[in-house]
Amino acid sequence: MADRVWAQSGDDDARAIMHDKRNLLEALVPTFTARQDGQPMRPIRQFGGIDQKSAESQCGHDVGTGVHGAVGWGGGMTETPQILLAHHLKALKLPTFLREYDKVARLCAAEGVDHPRHLMRLAEMEMIDRERRMVDRRIKAAKFPTVKSLDSFDFLALPSLNKMLVLELARSDYVERRENIIALGNSGTGKSHIALGLGLAACQKGLSAGFITASALVHELLEARDEKRLLRLQRQFAGYKLLIIDELGYVPLSPTGAELLFEVFSQRYERGSTLVTSNLPFDEWTSVFGSERLTGALLDRLTHHVHILEMNGDSYRLAHSKRRSRRNRADDPTDAAPQE
Fold first, then answer.
1. Who's near 41: CB < 8 A, 6+ residues apart?
2. pTM of the model as a whole
3. Torsion of CA 293, 294, 295, 299, to 10 degrees
4. N or C: which end of the chain has fewer CB within 10 A?
């Protein structure tokens, strides 16, 4: 009697194990086939051209063994474990691992590299590619009008700018300390370029950044207020590690717009870094905000922890246009001196 109970229990365990493995196999790569008796189509599972029974047979009724024992240093993988491995790597969100594992395995086999170093290479590739994708996402979320780096900025064209300070700020430590930057100078001296370069550097350091012009920011705030979603938009701007507000002072603000912009600065005070570019010196900011009291309160918060970049000089865009015009005249044969 005990033998029969033991045998029945063993059969139940075996059936349960086979049921679990069949469920795993059926979770992958569904296809459909028509029945010969005219009944509706029924699903079957195929793995690279083999049906479910063949897959189970090739796996030896042991899916785990098929996955872990599939790669040999001298050979490739069978088709079924490749599909299972691809499924697991996709589920784990390891796209670089999935894309490169076969090539790296063959390379390591040729070089005689052991298993830990083989896995280390794949892990390093995955980490590097993941960081690149994260930087790309942060740059896209920042909504930069164009991506510019500090490497392309001509510091020699603007002697008034402290290059060493700019390069120090590019390390983005000021963002961690929640300090601000104000770039002041006449139009065309590269203030937006510097702001974009520092924003890009922050994204590359793993920090969230946002870019918007002062007029566009005020427009969005007024629109959000009218649509009863102002608090949500204010939380969005308060959440950036670095918020870049470009071209403050180019357009005078309405009293309501000035108050809403002040709220943005106030909510970010000592909570996040703000970078502002302006063509006006501080004593002319009252003409933008229309109120000495509001302007004084804003400057008090903005300049408490601040790095000021003096960027007065000749317009880079104007100088570039003049040089291009001179080159065009020099190349134009109609401007040449008449022949005697």
1. 32, 33, 34, 35
2. 0.67
3. 100
4. C
Is 228 a domain residue? yes
> What's the rounded Cα separation, in Å, for the pair 324 and 311?
23
Is 162 among the domain residues? yes
What CATH code is carried by the domain that includes residue 261? 3.40.50.300
Q: Which amino acid is at 317?
A: R
Token pair 């909504």 in the structure block, residue: 143
pLDDT digits (tens, 9 = 90+) for 202-239: 999 999 999 999 999 999 999 999 999 999 999 999 99
Number of domains in the chain: 1
Q: Examine residue 98 and state whether it is found in any structural domain, yes or no.
A: no
Longest CA span, the chain: 128
Phi/psi zone of residue 139: left (φ > 0), alpha (ψ -120 to 50 degrees), beta?
alpha
- Look up residue 234 and give its amino acid: Q
- Residue 136: inside a domain, yes or no? no
Answer yes or no: are the C-beta atoms of 289 and 295 closer than 8 Å: yes
Question: Under a CB-based contact definition with an 8 Å cutoff, are residues 307 and 281 in contact?
Answer: no
In terms of residue numbers, what domain contains 257? 143-316
Q: Which residues contact 223 (CB under 8 A, 6 or more apart)?
A: none
